[in-house]
Amino acid sequence: MNPVAAGQLRSATTPGSRPVSWAATGRFGGVSADPFESLNLSTTVGDLQDAVIENQVRAAHLVGVSRYNVLDAKHGSQVALVSAGGIAHECDGAVTTTPGLALMVLAADCVPIVLADQTNGVIAVAHCGWRGLVAGIVDATIDLMQANGADKIQAITGPAICVSCYPVQQDCVTQLEAGLPTGIVSSIIKMSNDQRFVDVRAGVHAQLEAHGIHPSAILECTMENPALFSYRRDGRTGRQAMVIAL
Ligand SMILES: [Zn+2]
């Protein structure tokens, strides 16, 4: 199975330290049948459990491990500190300091994020849509990383719906305006033909930058790229992942 993207994060200050492996999956290379064809990683979208487990094991192998913990995201700001395989229930973020344990964040338009301070051995994943921007999941994830010893964090945002593909209702705009600093709101809401669009990735990046973190991005649009799952495009469909392990 070929990931959409994969790589290693290395420390700028201690080049000899062990790099952290990460990967972003697409929709191909798994065993699920239509409409989850084929690398669906979510057990909560109606796919066969055995197929999803096989797919999750394949995704974890991309970062060289067999144990993994999967986010069960709810568009909130709860973050779990995990040290064993399983599911982080109702959490949009997870942090670990345990080597050999992959963290997996699922998405199909929202922004998946992997974060790492490999010098101090702290990694995290987070899931952020427009509700997550307001809820503060990026801040909450960084807070828990720092509470566990992280101080030089790198981050990568994965495949997500782009601003041009993401028109929103007034309710979304109202909540963003109420919950975010004016500078961020004005930079992520675009107007076109009397329709408002939201750039969630830009919001995530602004919130990371506020912590001095300069993220890199996998600039693939889930809705435009048929090799990715997109909830907005397909409705009943699977979820791809970003995966990271110490
Ligand atoms: Zn797009």
From TrEMBL:
Signal sequence coordinates: none
GO molecular function (one): S-methyl-5-thioadenosine phosphorylase activity
Catalysis: reaction(s): S-methyl-5'-thioadenosine + phosphate = 5-(methylsulfanyl)-alpha-D-ribose 1-phosphate + adenine; inosine + phosphate = alpha-D-ribose 1-phosphate + hypoxanthine; adenosine + H2O + H(+) = inosine + NH4(+); adenosine + phosphate = alpha-D-ribose 1-phosphate + adenine
UniProt keyword Hydrolase present: yes
UniProt entry tagged with the keyword Hydrolase: yes
A Pfam family per the record: Cu-oxidase_4
Keywords assigned by UniProt, alphabetized: Hydrolase, Metal-binding, Transferase, Zinc
CDD domains associated with the record: YfiH
InterPro entries per the UniProt record, alphabetical: Cu_polyphenol_OxRdtase, Cu_polyphenol_OxRdtase_sf, Cytotoxic_necrot_fac-like_cat
Family membership: Belongs to the purine nucleoside phosphorylase YfiH/LACC1 family.
Entry-linked PANTHER family: PURINE NUCLEOSIDE PHOSPHORYLASE LACC1, UNCHARACTERIZED PROTEIN YFIH
Name of the protein this chain belongs to: Unannotated protein
Top-level taxonomy: unclassified sequences, metagenomes, ecological metagenomes
